[in-house]
Amino acid sequence: METPMIRIIKHVEVYAPEYLGKKDILTAGEQIAAIEDQIDPPASFPSLEVVEGEGLIAAPGFIDSHVHVTGGGGEGSYKSRTPEMKLSDATRAGVTTVIGVLGTDGMTRSMENLIAKARGLREEGISCWILTGSYQVPIRTLTKSIESDIIMISEIIGVGEVAISDHRSSQPTVEDIAKMVAAARVGGMLSGKAGVVNFHLGDGKRGLSLIKEVIRNSELPYHHFVPTHINRNAKLFEEGVVYARDGGFIDFTTSTTPQFLEEGEVKCSRALKICLDREVPPERITFTSDGQGSLPEFNENGELTGLRVGTSESLFTAVREAVQEEDVPLETALRVVTANPAALYKLPRKGAIQTGLDADLVLLNAEDLSIKTVMAMGKVMVRDGEAVVKGLFE
Ligand code: ZN
Protein backbone atom coordinates (compact mmCIF):
# COMPACT_ATOMS: atom_id res chain seq x y z
CA MET A 1 0.00 0.00 0.00
CA GLU A 2 1.21 3.50 -0.83
CA THR A 3 1.99 5.60 2.23
CA PRO A 4 -0.68 8.27 2.50
CA MET A 5 0.75 11.77 2.64
CA ILE A 6 -1.62 12.76 5.43
CA ARG A 7 -2.57 10.69 8.48
CA ILE A 8 -4.70 11.62 11.48
CA ILE A 9 -4.51 9.64 14.71
CA LYS A 10 -7.71 10.40 16.63
CA HIS A 11 -8.38 10.40 20.40
CA VAL A 12 -4.93 9.20 21.48
CA GLU A 13 -3.34 9.79 24.89
CA VAL A 14 -0.19 11.70 24.00
CA TYR A 15 3.02 11.30 25.98
CA ALA A 16 5.39 13.71 24.24
CA PRO A 17 7.09 12.32 26.47
CA GLU A 18 5.38 14.69 28.95
CA TYR A 19 1.66 13.98 29.19
CA LEU A 20 -0.38 16.27 26.91
CA GLY A 21 -3.79 14.66 27.36
CA LYS A 22 -6.08 13.12 24.77
CA LYS A 23 -5.34 14.66 21.37
CA ASP A 24 -5.52 14.20 17.63
CA ILE A 25 -2.16 14.04 15.84
CA LEU A 26 -1.81 15.02 12.19
CA THR A 27 1.22 13.81 10.25
CA ALA A 28 2.06 15.10 6.78
CA GLY A 29 4.75 13.30 4.83
CA GLU A 30 7.68 12.75 7.17
CA GLN A 31 6.62 15.34 9.75
CA ILE A 32 4.25 15.89 12.63
CA ALA A 33 2.05 18.70 11.29
CA ALA A 34 -0.33 19.37 14.19
CA ILE A 35 -1.37 18.20 17.65
CA GLU A 36 -4.83 19.50 18.59
CA ASP A 37 -7.82 18.58 20.73
CA GLN A 38 -9.73 17.84 17.55
CA ILE A 39 -8.63 17.65 13.92
CA ASP A 40 -11.34 16.85 11.40
CA PRO A 41 -10.33 15.59 8.00
CA PRO A 42 -12.12 17.04 4.97
CA ALA A 43 -14.15 14.15 3.55
CA SER A 44 -12.89 14.71 0.03
CA PHE A 45 -9.18 14.80 0.87
CA PRO A 46 -7.23 12.35 -1.29
CA SER A 47 -4.74 9.88 0.16
CA LEU A 48 -5.69 10.32 3.79
CA GLU A 49 -5.71 7.69 6.52
CA VAL A 50 -7.60 8.09 9.78
CA VAL A 51 -6.35 5.91 12.64
CA GLU A 52 -8.61 5.43 15.67
CA GLY A 53 -6.43 5.99 18.72
CA GLU A 54 -9.03 5.31 21.42
CA GLY A 55 -7.44 3.07 24.07
CA LEU A 56 -3.97 3.83 22.74
CA ILE A 57 -1.00 5.87 23.95
CA ALA A 58 1.22 7.77 21.51
CA ALA A 59 4.90 7.96 22.43
CA PRO A 60 7.85 9.34 20.46
CA GLY A 61 9.69 6.70 18.42
CA PHE A 62 12.36 5.15 20.64
CA ILE A 63 16.04 6.01 20.27
CA ASP A 64 18.43 3.11 20.86
CA SER A 65 21.73 4.92 21.15
CA HIS A 66 24.14 1.98 21.47
CA VAL A 67 23.63 -0.81 18.93
CA HIS A 68 26.19 -3.01 17.19
CA VAL A 69 24.32 -2.64 13.89
CA THR A 70 27.00 -4.44 11.87
CA GLY A 71 27.29 -7.19 14.48
CA GLY A 72 29.69 -7.30 17.39
CA GLY A 73 31.06 -9.87 19.76
CA GLY A 74 33.84 -12.15 18.59
CA GLU A 75 35.34 -12.59 22.05
CA GLY A 76 34.78 -16.37 21.81
CA SER A 77 36.81 -16.56 18.56
CA TYR A 78 35.64 -16.06 14.99
CA LYS A 79 32.51 -18.16 15.17
CA SER A 80 31.19 -15.93 17.98
CA ARG A 81 30.97 -12.83 15.79
CA THR A 82 27.34 -11.77 16.07
CA PRO A 83 25.01 -11.03 13.12
CA GLU A 84 23.97 -7.63 11.72
CA MET A 85 20.81 -5.86 12.81
CA LYS A 86 17.80 -6.36 10.54
CA LEU A 87 15.32 -3.54 10.00
CA SER A 88 12.51 -5.30 11.88
CA ASP A 89 14.81 -5.99 14.87
CA ALA A 90 14.49 -2.24 15.45
CA THR A 91 10.98 -1.45 14.28
CA ARG A 92 9.19 -4.31 16.06
CA ALA A 93 10.79 -2.95 19.24
CA GLY A 94 9.46 0.56 18.61
CA VAL A 95 12.95 1.80 17.76
CA THR A 96 12.95 4.37 14.96
CA THR A 97 16.42 5.83 15.57
CA VAL A 98 19.61 3.87 16.21
CA ILE A 99 23.16 4.93 16.92
CA GLY A 100 25.55 2.32 15.57
CA VAL A 101 28.87 1.42 17.18
CA LEU A 102 31.67 -1.09 16.50
CA GLY A 103 32.86 -2.67 19.77
CA THR A 104 35.67 -4.93 20.95
CA ASP A 105 36.58 -5.76 17.39
CA GLY A 106 37.94 -2.78 15.49
CA MET A 107 39.96 -5.01 13.14
CA THR A 108 37.52 -7.24 11.26
CA ARG A 109 34.72 -4.68 11.78
CA SER A 110 35.39 -1.44 9.95
CA MET A 111 34.09 2.12 9.92
CA GLU A 112 33.44 1.76 6.17
CA ASN A 113 31.13 -1.15 6.89
CA LEU A 114 29.42 0.77 9.71
CA ILE A 115 28.71 3.77 7.48
CA ALA A 116 27.34 1.54 4.73
CA LYS A 117 25.07 -0.21 7.24
CA ALA A 118 23.84 3.14 8.61
CA ARG A 119 23.00 4.25 5.09
CA GLY A 120 21.26 0.95 4.42
CA LEU A 121 19.04 1.32 7.51
CA ARG A 122 18.20 4.87 6.41
CA GLU A 123 17.22 3.61 2.95
CA GLU A 124 15.01 1.02 4.62
CA GLY A 125 13.19 3.77 6.52
CA ILE A 126 14.60 4.36 10.01
CA SER A 127 17.09 6.99 11.20
CA CYS A 128 20.67 6.03 11.95
CA TRP A 129 23.83 7.79 13.07
CA ILE A 130 27.13 6.27 14.14
CA LEU A 131 30.12 6.81 16.40
CA THR A 132 33.71 6.59 15.18
CA GLY A 133 36.23 4.16 16.65
CA SER A 134 36.03 1.00 18.72
CA TYR A 135 37.30 -0.17 22.12
CA GLN A 136 40.87 0.90 21.32
CA VAL A 137 42.69 4.17 22.05
CA PRO A 138 44.12 5.83 20.05
CA ILE A 139 40.98 5.73 17.94
CA ARG A 140 41.38 4.24 14.47
CA THR A 141 39.48 6.86 12.54
CA LEU A 142 38.08 6.77 9.02
CA THR A 143 39.71 10.02 7.91
CA LYS A 144 42.77 11.62 9.45
CA SER A 145 41.43 12.47 12.90
CA ILE A 146 38.46 12.37 15.27
CA GLU A 147 37.72 16.01 14.41
CA SER A 148 37.68 15.42 10.67
CA ASP A 149 35.56 12.23 11.01
CA ILE A 150 32.91 14.22 12.89
CA ILE A 151 33.14 17.30 10.68
CA MET A 152 33.36 15.60 7.27
CA ILE A 153 31.16 12.49 7.62
CA SER A 154 27.50 13.38 8.10
CA GLU A 155 26.58 10.10 9.86
CA ILE A 156 29.34 10.39 12.51
CA ILE A 157 28.25 12.36 15.60
CA GLY A 158 30.76 11.26 18.23
CA VAL A 159 33.28 8.64 19.35
CA GLY A 160 32.83 5.17 20.83
CA GLU A 161 32.40 2.79 22.28
CA VAL A 162 35.77 3.20 23.95
CA ALA A 163 36.59 0.64 26.65
CA ILE A 164 37.87 1.65 30.07
CA SER A 165 38.19 -0.24 33.36
CA ASP A 166 38.07 -3.48 31.41
CA HIS A 167 40.56 -6.28 30.67
CA ARG A 168 39.68 -5.92 26.97
CA SER A 169 40.46 -2.18 26.93
CA SER A 170 43.68 -0.71 25.52
CA GLN A 171 44.39 0.65 29.02
CA PRO A 172 44.11 4.34 28.06
CA THR A 173 45.55 6.90 30.46
CA VAL A 174 43.82 9.97 31.87
CA GLU A 175 45.71 12.06 29.34
CA ASP A 176 44.63 9.80 26.43
CA ILE A 177 41.02 10.22 27.48
CA ALA A 178 41.25 13.99 27.90
CA LYS A 179 42.77 14.41 24.42
CA MET A 180 40.17 12.13 22.81
CA VAL A 181 37.19 13.92 24.41
CA ALA A 182 38.71 17.31 23.56
CA ALA A 183 38.93 16.28 19.89
CA ALA A 184 35.33 15.05 19.92
CA ARG A 185 34.19 18.30 21.52
CA VAL A 186 35.90 20.53 18.94
CA GLY A 187 34.70 18.32 16.07
CA GLY A 188 31.19 18.59 17.43
CA MET A 189 31.37 22.36 17.85
CA LEU A 190 32.58 22.89 14.30
CA SER A 191 29.85 20.68 12.81
CA GLY A 192 26.90 21.43 15.10
CA LYS A 193 26.94 17.83 16.38
CA ALA A 194 27.06 16.36 19.87
CA GLY A 195 30.75 15.40 19.81
CA VAL A 196 30.28 12.98 22.70
CA VAL A 197 32.37 9.97 23.66
CA ASN A 198 30.57 6.77 24.58
CA PHE A 199 32.58 4.78 27.16
CA HIS A 200 32.20 1.04 27.70
CA LEU A 201 32.70 0.43 31.42
CA GLY A 202 33.97 -3.01 32.36
CA ASP A 203 34.06 -4.72 35.75
CA GLY A 204 37.54 -3.29 36.43
CA LYS A 205 38.41 -1.83 39.81
CA ARG A 206 38.94 1.69 38.48
CA GLY A 207 35.26 2.14 37.66
CA LEU A 208 34.51 5.75 36.69
CA SER A 209 37.69 7.14 38.27
CA LEU A 210 39.41 7.86 34.92
CA ILE A 211 36.46 9.91 33.67
CA LYS A 212 36.08 11.73 36.98
CA GLU A 213 39.75 12.64 36.97
CA VAL A 214 39.55 14.06 33.43
CA ILE A 215 36.52 16.16 34.39
CA ARG A 216 38.23 17.39 37.55
CA ASN A 217 41.43 18.40 35.78
CA SER A 218 40.14 19.80 32.47
CA GLU A 219 37.63 22.27 31.08
CA LEU A 220 35.61 19.46 29.46
CA PRO A 221 31.94 19.48 30.51
CA TYR A 222 30.03 16.41 31.67
CA HIS A 223 27.80 16.20 28.62
CA HIS A 224 30.67 14.98 26.39
CA PHE A 225 31.01 11.79 28.47
CA VAL A 226 28.47 8.98 28.07
CA PRO A 227 29.54 6.03 30.22
CA THR A 228 27.50 2.89 29.52
CA HIS A 229 26.88 -0.50 31.23
CA ILE A 230 26.65 1.42 34.56
CA ASN A 231 24.21 -1.23 35.87
CA ARG A 232 26.61 -4.11 35.22
CA ASN A 233 27.46 -4.55 38.93
CA ALA A 234 26.34 -3.08 42.24
CA LYS A 235 29.58 -1.20 42.91
CA LEU A 236 29.68 0.57 39.55
CA PHE A 237 25.98 1.35 39.82
CA GLU A 238 26.50 3.00 43.21
CA GLU A 239 29.39 5.04 41.81
CA GLY A 240 27.18 5.98 38.84
CA VAL A 241 24.37 7.28 41.05
CA VAL A 242 26.77 9.67 42.81
CA TYR A 243 28.41 10.67 39.51
CA ALA A 244 24.99 11.51 37.98
CA ARG A 245 23.96 13.51 41.04
CA ASP A 246 27.20 15.49 40.66
CA GLY A 247 26.28 16.37 37.04
CA GLY A 248 27.23 13.34 34.95
CA PHE A 249 25.14 11.36 32.44
CA ILE A 250 24.77 7.59 32.91
CA ASP A 251 23.55 4.89 30.56
CA PHE A 252 22.09 1.53 31.56
CA THR A 253 22.21 -1.56 29.32
CA THR A 254 18.90 -3.38 28.91
CA SER A 255 20.07 -6.60 27.19
CA THR A 256 20.81 -9.12 29.89
CA THR A 257 20.67 -12.78 30.85
CA PRO A 258 19.38 -14.51 34.00
CA GLN A 259 23.00 -15.33 34.82
CA PHE A 260 24.11 -11.68 34.64
CA LEU A 261 21.29 -10.65 36.99
CA GLU A 262 22.11 -13.49 39.37
CA GLU A 263 25.72 -12.35 39.45
CA GLY A 264 24.83 -8.83 40.56
CA GLU A 265 23.80 -6.84 37.51
CA VAL A 266 21.16 -4.26 38.49
CA LYS A 267 18.01 -4.72 36.42
CA CYS A 268 17.39 -1.52 34.40
CA SER A 269 13.86 -0.93 35.68
CA ARG A 270 15.12 -1.22 39.26
CA ALA A 271 18.15 0.97 38.49
CA LEU A 272 15.90 3.74 37.19
CA LYS A 273 13.66 3.56 40.23
CA ILE A 274 16.61 3.73 42.64
CA CYS A 275 18.09 6.72 40.77
CA LEU A 276 14.79 8.62 40.98
CA ASP A 277 14.39 7.80 44.67
CA ARG A 278 17.90 9.12 45.26
CA GLU A 279 17.15 12.33 43.40
CA VAL A 280 19.22 11.83 40.29
CA PRO A 281 17.73 14.33 37.80
CA PRO A 282 15.80 12.11 35.34
CA GLU A 283 17.28 13.88 32.29
CA ARG A 284 20.71 12.45 33.14
CA ILE A 285 19.67 8.83 32.62
CA THR A 286 19.45 6.87 29.36
CA PHE A 287 18.76 3.23 28.48
CA THR A 288 20.36 1.48 25.51
CA SER A 289 20.03 -2.11 24.38
CA ASP A 290 23.62 -2.96 23.35
CA GLY A 291 21.71 -4.72 20.56
CA GLN A 292 23.57 -7.33 18.47
CA GLY A 293 26.31 -7.35 21.12
CA SER A 294 27.27 -10.74 22.55
CA LEU A 295 26.09 -11.91 25.95
CA PRO A 296 28.53 -14.65 26.90
CA GLU A 297 27.61 -17.14 29.62
CA PHE A 298 30.23 -19.02 31.58
CA ASN A 299 30.02 -22.01 33.92
CA GLU A 300 31.55 -22.11 37.40
CA ASN A 301 34.93 -23.05 35.86
CA GLY A 302 34.91 -19.93 33.71
CA GLU A 303 34.32 -21.91 30.50
CA LEU A 304 32.09 -20.41 27.82
CA THR A 305 28.83 -22.34 27.86
CA GLY A 306 26.59 -20.20 25.74
CA LEU A 307 26.46 -17.05 23.76
CA ARG A 308 23.33 -14.98 23.33
CA VAL A 309 22.85 -11.85 21.30
CA GLY A 310 21.52 -8.57 22.69
CA THR A 311 18.29 -7.23 21.20
CA SER A 312 16.65 -3.85 20.77
CA GLU A 313 13.51 -5.54 22.06
CA SER A 314 14.98 -5.38 25.56
CA LEU A 315 14.94 -1.56 25.43
CA PHE A 316 11.22 -0.93 25.76
CA THR A 317 10.72 -4.09 27.83
CA ALA A 318 12.86 -2.39 30.50
CA VAL A 319 10.86 0.84 30.21
CA ARG A 320 7.59 -1.09 30.56
CA GLU A 321 8.93 -2.96 33.61
CA ALA A 322 9.89 0.36 35.21
CA VAL A 323 6.25 1.47 34.89
CA GLN A 324 4.52 -1.82 35.70
CA GLU A 325 6.84 -3.23 38.38
CA GLU A 326 8.50 -0.15 39.88
CA ASP A 327 5.71 2.43 39.61
CA VAL A 328 7.85 4.89 37.66
CA PRO A 329 5.52 7.39 35.92
CA LEU A 330 5.22 6.59 32.20
CA GLU A 331 6.34 10.06 31.14
CA THR A 332 9.53 9.72 33.20
CA ALA A 333 10.26 6.18 32.03
CA LEU A 334 9.76 7.14 28.38
CA ARG A 335 12.30 9.98 28.65
CA VAL A 336 15.22 7.56 28.98
CA VAL A 337 14.66 6.24 25.45
CA THR A 338 13.32 9.45 23.83
CA ALA A 339 13.98 13.02 25.02
CA ASN A 340 17.15 12.21 26.97
CA PRO A 341 19.15 10.50 24.20
CA ALA A 342 17.87 13.11 21.71
CA ALA A 343 19.34 15.88 23.88
CA LEU A 344 22.58 14.06 24.68
CA TYR A 345 23.28 13.11 21.06
CA LYS A 346 21.90 16.43 19.78
CA LEU A 347 19.18 15.05 17.53
CA PRO A 348 16.76 18.01 17.50
CA ARG A 349 14.17 16.36 15.22
CA LYS A 350 13.91 13.26 17.44
CA GLY A 351 12.71 12.16 20.84
CA ALA A 352 9.51 14.19 21.16
CA ILE A 353 5.99 14.50 19.78
CA GLN A 354 5.98 18.11 18.65
CA THR A 355 4.74 19.98 15.63
CA GLY A 356 7.50 20.18 13.02
CA LEU A 357 9.52 17.20 14.27
CA ASP A 358 9.94 13.89 12.43
CA ALA A 359 6.84 11.70 12.45
CA ASP A 360 8.45 8.88 14.49
CA LEU A 361 5.66 7.50 16.67
CA VAL A 362 4.88 4.41 18.70
CA LEU A 363 1.26 3.57 19.53
CA LEU A 364 0.97 1.45 22.68
CA ASN A 365 -2.06 -0.40 23.97
CA ALA A 366 -2.93 1.59 27.11
CA GLU A 367 -3.95 -1.55 28.99
CA ASP A 368 -0.67 -3.46 28.93
CA LEU A 369 1.76 -1.08 27.16
CA SER A 370 2.29 -3.56 24.33
CA ILE A 371 3.47 -2.12 21.00
CA LYS A 372 0.70 -1.91 18.42
CA THR A 373 1.86 0.47 15.70
CA VAL A 374 5.23 1.97 14.83
CA MET A 375 5.72 4.85 12.40
CA ALA A 376 9.15 6.00 11.20
CA MET A 377 9.43 9.23 9.20
CA GLY A 378 5.67 9.13 8.65
CA LYS A 379 5.63 5.58 7.32
CA VAL A 380 3.89 2.70 9.13
CA MET A 381 6.55 0.04 9.77
CA VAL A 382 4.63 -2.09 12.30
CA ARG A 383 0.87 -2.66 12.37
CA ASP A 384 -0.85 -4.70 15.12
CA GLY A 385 2.58 -5.74 16.39
CA GLU A 386 3.65 -7.18 13.01
CA ALA A 387 6.40 -5.71 10.84
CA VAL A 388 4.70 -4.68 7.61
CA VAL A 389 7.91 -3.26 6.12
CA LYS A 390 10.87 -5.64 6.00
CA GLY A 391 14.50 -5.21 5.08
CA LEU A 392 15.40 -6.36 1.58
CA PHE A 393 16.68 -9.79 2.70
CA GLU A 394 14.30 -10.47 5.58
ZN1 ZN B 1 30.19 -2.38 25.65
Highlighted features:
binds zinc ion, TIM Barrel, 6-stranded parallel sheet, 28% strand, 9-stranded mixed sheet, alpha/beta, 394 residues, Urease, subunit C, domain 1, 2 domains
CATH homologous superfamily title of the largest domain: Metal-dependent hydrolases
* Structural Rg: 20 Å
Beginning-to-end CA distance, first to last residue: 19 Å
Shape: globular
Annotation field: number of helices: 11
Unreliably modeled segments: none
Largest sheet data: 9 strands, mixed
Count of DSSP E strands? 19
- Top-tier CATH class of the largest domain: Alpha Beta
Which small molecules are bound? zinc ion
Give the topology string: H per helix, E per strand. EEEEEEHEHEHEHEHEHEHHEEEHHHEEEE
CATH architecture of the largest domain: Alpha-Beta Barrel
Please give a quick description of this structure.
The protein is an alpha/beta fold. The protein has helices spanning 87-91, 111-124, 146-152, 174-191, 209-216, 234-245, 258-262, 268-277, 313-326, 330-335, 339-344, and strands at 6-15, 19-28, 31-36, 48-52, 56-60, 62-67, 95-100, 127-132, 156-164, 196-201, 225-228, 250-253, 285-288, 294-298, 304-309, 361-365, 371-376, 379-383, 386-387.
Structural description of this entry:
- The chain is an alpha/beta fold and 394 residues long.
- The chain has 2 domains: 6-59 and 352-387, Urease, subunit C, domain 1; 62-344, Metal-dependent hydrolases (TIM Barrel, Alpha-Beta Barrel), CATH 3.20.20.
- Helices cover 27% and strands 28% of the residues.
- The chain has 11 helices and 19 strands.
- It has helices at 87-91, 111-124, 146-152, 174-191, 209-216, 234-245, 258-262, 268-277, 313-326, 330-335, 339-344; strands at 6-15, 19-28, 31-36, 48-52, 56-60, 62-67, 95-100, 127-132, 156-164, 196-201, 225-228, 250-253, 285-288, 294-298, 304-309, 361-365, 371-376, 379-383, 386-387.
- Strands 1, 2, 3, 4, 5, 16, 17, 18 and 19 form a 9-stranded mixed sheet that branches.
- Strand 7, helix 2 and strand 8 form a beta-alpha-beta unit.
- Helix 3 packs parallel to helix 4 and helix 8 (268-277) crosses helix 9.
- The protein starts with 5 loop residues before the first strand and ends in a 7-residue tail after the last strand.
- Zinc ion binds at residues 161, 200, 229.
